[in-house]
Structure formats: C-alpha cells, structure tokens
Specification:
mainly beta; globular
C-alpha cells in the first residue's frame, strides 16, 4: 500500500488497465480522405521517441455534419540537454485547430477532400530563457483510394507556412501511405 501512496498517477494507470481494447492508428503524418460519421467523435493519441527526443500528440475530432470534421490538436516534444547544442530546441508545446471537408467520399474507389490546419507553438531553447512563438497554417489536398478487399492508399499534397520571430517559411509538404486491414 505504501507504493501506491508514492505513485501519484495510480488513478490514471488503473483507468488504462480497465479500458477496453481498440484498434486504431495514431495520428498519421499522411491523413486519409475520410471523415467521422455525423455526430460521432474520435480521440487519437501517440507517443514517440527518436534517440533523445521524446514527443506526444493528441487529436480530438468531432463531425458536426456529413463529410465535415473539426479537430482540436495538441503536441509536445522534449529533447535532453545532453543531446543538443546550446542553441538547440529543448522543448516545444503546440495547440491548434483543423477542419477537414471530404465532399467526395465512398466506401471504395476514390475519396477526396481538403484539410485546413492552424497551429500555434511555443518553443524553448537551451540557451534562451524566453520562449519563442511560431504560427503555422496549412492547406492540404487529401486523396484516398480504397480497394474492395480492404487496403487503402492515401496521398496528400499541400502548402504550409510557418511564421516565427517575424520570419516566414513556406513549404510544400506531401506524402503517401498505405494501410491494410
């Protein structure tokens, strides 16, 4: 019983043990051209680690109407001080909003839509006590081809702009992914 008193997060651990198993994907870098059913909600959470950089992302989405999805996004990452140069990023926290509209949606064949994202980030660097803000806006075209027997191929192409400390950085992100049942 003494161990439970020292472990502050035991209610969360107990809740995780009692949760029902689900089959889901964590927030993908490449998004599918599909929206949640009207009136339904979703929560996606991911945790990652790459060398000495740890990160997490959380997306909560709701579909107020057919083919439209509204998402609230939160992200964070932290890099150990030993792993970086003094001017390197030590931690970052971000929050944002995304709207996904999929006017061409089907159970099989082509589905297509667009996604608009607005993200606000606070970055902390090892050599600077003050945090810096960064604003990102992205518009992405989404396409998905769903095969009759279950697999799907996803393709994204868009335009993204970041503004940090008065300096704008445009980019053209794109990507493709596949998933199988």
């Amino acid at each position: 019983m003494m161990a439970l008193k020292r472990f502050k997060h035991w209610p969360l651990a107990l809740l995780a043990c009692l949760a029902l198993p689900v089959h889901a994907e964590r927030p993908m870098t490449v998004d599918d051209a599909g929206a949640t059913e009207p009136g339904a909600a979703k929560i996606e959470f991911g945790w990652s680690r790459d060398d000495r950089v740890r990160g997490w992302d959380l997306v909560a989405g709701y579909a107020p109407m057919s083919n439209l999805e509204v998402e609230v996004v939160a992200q964070g990452l932290q890099q150990s001080h030993r792993a970086s140069q003094p001017e390197a990023l030590s931690r970052m926290r971000a929050k944002g909003l995304a709207l996904k509209w999929v006017p061409l949606a089907g159970e099989s064949g082509l589905s297509a839509g667009i996604k608009f994202e607005l993200l606000q980030a606070r970055q902390h660097f090892h050599d600077d006590a003050a945090a810096q803000s960064e604003s990102t806006r992205a518009l992405t075209g989404l396409a998905t081809w769903r095969f009759e027997n279950g697999p799907a191929a996803h393709f994204n192409l868009g335009r993204k702009g970041c503004v940090a400390v008065g300096h704008a950085t445009p980019s053209t992100p794109g990507g493709w992914a596949t998933n199988t049942p």
